[in-house]
User: What shape does this take?
Amino acid sequence: MFLRIREPVEAVTFSFDGRSVTAARGDTLAAALLAAGVETFRDSVVGGEPRAPYCLMGICYECLVTIDGIQNRQSCLVEVHEGMVVNSQHGARLVTGRADR
Amino acid sequence: MPLLDDCDIAVVGGGLVGAALAWGLARTGLKTMVLDGGDLDPRASRANFALVWVQGKGLHAPHYALWSKASAERWPAFAAALAADSGIDVALSQRGAFSFALSQGELDMLAAELETIAAETNGAAAPYEILTAEETRRRLPLVGQDVVGAAYSPADGHVNSLRLFHALHTAMRHRGVDYRACHAVERIEPVDAGFRLAGAFGTIFARRIVLAAGIDNQRLAAMVGLHAPLKHSKGQILVTEKCRPLFEYTSATIRQADEGGVMIGDSEETHTTAIATNQEISAVLANRAVRVFPCLAEVNVVRSWAGFRVKTRDGLPIYAQSASHPGAFIAVCHSGVTLAANHALVVAPQIASGALSSDLAPFHSGRFHVSENS
Assistant: This one.
């Protein structure tokens, strides 16, 4: 759906739902996933509908994903990093009481 | 002169109280109109915490304890009738509620109040238990170490209050209620065999009226010989992102809505009329919530808002018919969700019949005159 205007000068590799994705250093995670052809970032909590980024500026909360085990991160506000483990967000946040903070 | 729009009975205010009464009045067959204010009017119906709550209500007012309990018991039938008329499920859940104590003093006070209410109602109030810290954590493993105990009552519950609001409006239109948005009533003139209600919208004639205008009742009541002294009571609420079920009961300060968001609330400010939320109060709410459920520390807050409670000077509802202008009724209360079942199924039919029952006499606004004169 989206095409890069130019090829990445410096590539960064991360995983999304177990597959390897290459992005350009400096990409937001949302932009990197869109450029890699990902169309569904999460399922909506109430209706289970597929969702993808909408505003790309931190307002709409449509682009939520799980990053390195932390659920409900806004992928449009996070820069990609080498080795990041990203998973699509399914359902509401699971509150465990065991978060590392 | 052109004929005025007219109705058997006009409800002034289309919030939870007005809509519940209007639906109940229309169910009795009356030609009912609702004159509602504007979108930006202060609306407790859009800011409330959505509890169907009995626990601790009615200290030194046993009639209020029993009135609240009766409404909670009536809620399942009310929700079913509402669903039949609106097609909307308001997500009523009545599994009981915990009041968490973060100090021994808080627990002692909870226990003393519930014991007093039980005694003042001769044991007819809702049942309750006082739980130790261990017993509280046995029932709710996510409760934190700062909780020294809790009160639990099986009578309490909650709903999705925005859906309740929507359901009441859908149901009242289904019953033929003539709902008028942006019809803020500025003046009420008692005339022959009825009342003339006037505002920027024009004038409407109603044979009878019910004032259900929240905090504006104070102003409107005086126009028809009624009295509704209110006090300021601002409440603030935090809402988290939607989470999977973590608390299947409810409490006065923390509840998880049916769709997963955790609502944190129950602040009260009495000396402000500013609607903006106050960060320091948000911090206190969040801190207490995290002490009760430490796991909430990992959850994001996505919204907060403030609203004004409709609180009478003694905190109890007012239900009255004007002595000087019969046919003018008033309903004022803080607990528009809890009491919605009573309003639709009990108070509305009484208003339709022309008189409030003697059971409601203790809620008459005349009680304020007594205290003012003494």
The helical segments of chain A are 29-35. Residues 28 and 79 of chain A are 4 Å apart (CA to CA).
